[in-house]
Amino acid sequence: MKISSTKAGKLHFIRLNKDDDILLTLRKVVEEKKIKTGFIMNGLGSVQSYHYHVVADCNIPPAESFPKAEEPCDVIAVTGMVIDGRVHAHIILSDSEKAQGGHLEEGTRVLTFTVIVIMEAEELSFTDWDGVGIEM
């Protein structure tokens, strides 16, 4: 286990518009605002298409599945981290039948709008925190 602490940092409120790709927009914001370390606190809205990946077995590294579709869903949550300027985001989506989600991929495009909040954590470093099999 590894624990790091900091005071809350600058908050960035990002409103995405129809047809925006969520992951590409997050990468652009992180680059433009020069965010090296941060937390994707939450997100909400709707999408017209989605693309994400999930682990598909218990091997290390795990196999992955890449669900992708052109269909409307509500965005229930977007969470994650910015690690060394790299976006590591997860998304939860729902329709009238089910909830689904995983690691956000390019191709998840906004339907009406989506709002995402990123909090900077300049004092911290999360290098390798998302590495598979790395002892902390």
List the helices and strands and how they pair.
Layout: E1 11-17, H1 22-32, E2 37-55, E3 64-65, E4 68-69, E5 73-83, E6 86-94, E7 99-104, E8 109-120
Antiparallel strand pairs: 1-8, 2-3, 2-4, 2-5, 2-7, 2-8, 5-6, 6-7
Describe, in plain words, how this protein is organized in 3D.
The chain has 136 residues and is mainly beta. It has one domain: 60s Ribosomal Protein L30, Chain: A (2-Layer Sandwich). The chain has one helix at residues 22-32, and strands at 11-17, 37-55, 64-65, 68-69, 73-83, 86-94, 99-104, 109-120. Strands 1, 2, 3, 4, 5, 6, 7 and 8 form an eight-stranded antiparallel beta sheet that branches. The N and C termini lie close together (6 Å). Residues 6-136 form the PPC domain. Pfam families: PCC.
| Beta-strand percent range | over 45%
**How do the helices and strands follow one another from N- to C-terminus?**
EHEEEEEEE
Quote the average pLDDT: 92
- Poorly predicted runs are none
Radius of gyration: 15 Å
Overall tally of structural domains = 1
* N-end to C-end Cα span: 6 Å
Category from helices, strands and their pairing: mainly beta
Helix content: under 10%
CATH class: Alpha Beta
CATH topology: 60s Ribosomal Protein L30, Chain: A
GO molecular function, one term: DNA binding
Protein name: DNA-binding protein
Domain PPC: 6-136
Keywords: DNA-binding
